[in-house]
Write a structure and sequence with these properties.
This protein is α+β, with helices and mostly antiparallel strands and 552 residues long. It has 16 helices and 16 strands. It has helices at 64-72, 92-104, 106-116, 119-126, 137-156, 165-178, 244-255, 262-265, 292-295, 338-359, 380-395, 400-422, 429-447, 457-475, 478-498, 502-512, and strands spanning 10-12, 15-19, 30-34, 43-48, 52-53, 184-185, 194-195, 201-207, 213-219, 230-233, 276-277, 305-310, 321-326, 332-333, 524-525, 534-535. A hairpin with a 5-residue loop joins strand 8 and strand 9. Helix 3 (106-116) crosses helix 6 (165-178).
């Protein structure tokens, strides 16, 4: 989301939109600034409907197919144009972008939705940021690609449509740079919010009973936002919790800018999301793999960590770790030494594979994706578990790659548990204990990053935490229910402050649950420290597994 440059200041209750004097955080030309002190949880922008909805994943409810069929009917052939319909000459990189965007069809759906929109909505959509015609690099390639798509789209529309090629290009650029995932374009002031990797506000998107979405923005900084401060959100989704190199790569390829926020420039204590066991303090074997007691850090302080330092003087669009600096011994590991060279090579290779995997819905057909050469491209969960093992063996259990892969696998496990519960079956006790162990480690990771907003790990893990709580409540015994209430307490403030709808009802239901002294199922004795789970009757109850190389 980048705001188009205007000379006027736009005033709203508690904040204003005004031009930036520099490119600013996220490269936007307009910025949103508080005019008064805004407390944590303050509703900055109330639920607002999108200007346009387009793309298959933007729909919810039974009318999705009818909506998309209607949008396709806007074209003369009754189908969306494709890559073969593009006519304008393009350079290699712009051509690849145009063909990819044409193949997805999303920009053509947006153009069809624009045709249906009333004049006021069209005007608001075209007021969103779009890069100028003389833009260079990635932004220039996107401008050229959207120019080709616009010419193709307007040529293919069934007359009369009243859309010029210039407006179609501006619309497609506005959608490329401003739309939310799934194909929803919101107008001012939402589109005026710039990005920060340590944002002080958060957006929440909800759906009404009619299936229509609405987006709201709340202040998430615990101390609030002082008057005169720029208000920002994160554009990164899950990658908000990745290291600077991964964040920079995603922002450049998705939004065509390099972030300049403090977390990317020089965060205090280093880039904790990318921390790995120090190559000097903890030796690797010839393949760059860690000893087991190092990769599975028990939190006793015995493992010393090195944080990544960005490479200097890199080419545009290249975001790479240049060295690893140990916070304990002070050693900087770079390409000048064999040990540093190997550590950096492993770091970059594994991080790149995980970034690619989490950026795409299916595992790549890559024979080098795993040590065993299994690259059949079809075994999604098995692929992720093998990739998680590789990341843990080389980068340790506290790196962003291991944490986000663990989160992806935990989501699948919880979906399987809940499906089984619908048929009256409880999950396997040992597997449930492993999932709880995973959740505890994810909380350590999220809270250890020290991010400004959204109540620490609650933002990342509220859904997974409540998912575990629901399983524990289903066990029915008093101790499991009590343990579920303790876990729910971790996310209750976050859910009630930032999330809406059924999440609050789930928290309330867990808080009101009562155990039945069933005496069977998974029973955990609640300890003051969440990291200390004392299990009784080990033959019937989950075993907490501290070492998780593979879970088949």
């Amino acid at each position: 989301m980048f705001a188009a440059m205007t000379s006027a200041t736009e005033n709203y209750p508690g904040f204003e939109v005004r031009p930036l004097h520099s490119t600013g955080i996220g490269g936007g030309q307009m910025g949103v600034f508080s005019t008064i002190h805004l407390p944590c949880g303050h509703v900055l922008i109330p639920p607002t409907a999108p200007l346009l909805r387009y793309g298959p994943s933007a729909d919810s409810g039974g009318d999705a197919d009818d909506r998309l069929s209607h949008l396709r009917s806007k074209y003369t052939s009754g189908r969306l144009p494709g890559p073969s319909d593009l006519a304008l000459p393009l350079n290699t990189s712009a051509k690849a972008l145009a063909e990819s965007l044409a193949d997805s069809g999303r920009m053509f759906y947006a153009l069809a939705a624009f045709c249906d929109a009333p004049p006021a909505v069209r005007t608001a959509a075209l007021s969103c940021y779009a890069p100028p015609s003389d833009a260079r690099g990635r932004a220039g390639d996107l401008f050229a690609a959207c120019s080709a798509l616009a010419e193709c789209g307007v040529r293919s529309l069934a007359p009369p449509h009243g859309v010029s090629v210039a407006d179609a290009r501006s619309l497609m650029l506005a959608c490329t740079f401003n739309a939310f995932e799934g194909g929803r374009l919101y107008g001012p002031p939402l589109c005026r919010l710039n990005h920060s990797c340590d944002a002080n506000c958060v957006y929440t998107e909800t759906y009404g009973n009619d299936g229509n979405p609405a987006l709201s923005v709340r202040v998430s900084a615990p101390a609030g936002v002082p008057a005169g401060t720029e208000i920002n959100i994160s554009y990164l989704g899950l990658f908000h919790y990745a290291d600077a190199a991964a964040r920079g790569t995603r922002l450049y390829f998705d939004k065509a800018f390099a972030c300049e926020c403090p977390r990317c420039a020089d965060p205090p204590g280093g880039d904790s999301a990318g921390a790995v066991p120090c190559p000097t303090c903890h030796c690797r074997n010839a393949r760059g793999m860690l000893e087991e007691e190092v990769m599975f850090d028990d939190g006793s302080g015995g493992v010393k960590y090195a944080v990544p330092v960005p490479a200097q003087g890199k080419a545009e669009g290249v975001f790479q770790v240049g060295s690893l600096r140990c916070t304990a011994c002070g050693m900087a590991h770079n390409s000048d030494s064999p040990g540093g060279r190997m550590a950096l090579e492993v770091y970059r290779k594994v991080s790149g594979k995980v970034l690619d995997r989490l950026s795409s819905p299916q595992p790549a057909d890559d024979e080098d994706a795993m040590d065993d050469g299994d690259g059949d491209g079809a075994a999604g969960e098995e692929f992720d578990r093998d990739l998680l093992e590789m990341a843990t063996l080389t980068l340790g259990s506290r790196h962003w790659t291991t944490s986000l892969l663990t989160l992806s696998i935990l989501d699948r496990d919880l979906a399987r548990y809940h499906s089984a519960m619908l048929t009256g079956r409880l999950p396997d006790a040992e597997e449930l204990a492993g999932s709880i162990d995973d959740l505890q480690n994810l909380w350590k990771f999220a809270d250890g990053m020290g991010l400004t907003g959204r109540c620490g790990g609650g933002a990342l893990l509220y859904a997974q935490t409540l998912g575990i709580c629901r399983v524990l409540v289903a066990m029915g015994d008093e101790k499991s229910v009590a343990y579920a209430k303790e876990w729910a307490g971790r996310v209750a403030v976050h859910v009630r402050t930032f999330e809406a709808g059924h999440w609050g009802k789930i928290v309330e239901g867990i808080e009101k649950s009562q155990g039945k002294n069933a005496g069977t199922g998974a029973v955990a004795t609640v300890a003051t420290d969440y990291d200390d789970m004392e299990m009784a009757d080990v033959d019937e109850r989950p075993k907490k597994r501290k070492k998780k190389k593979k879970r088949r």
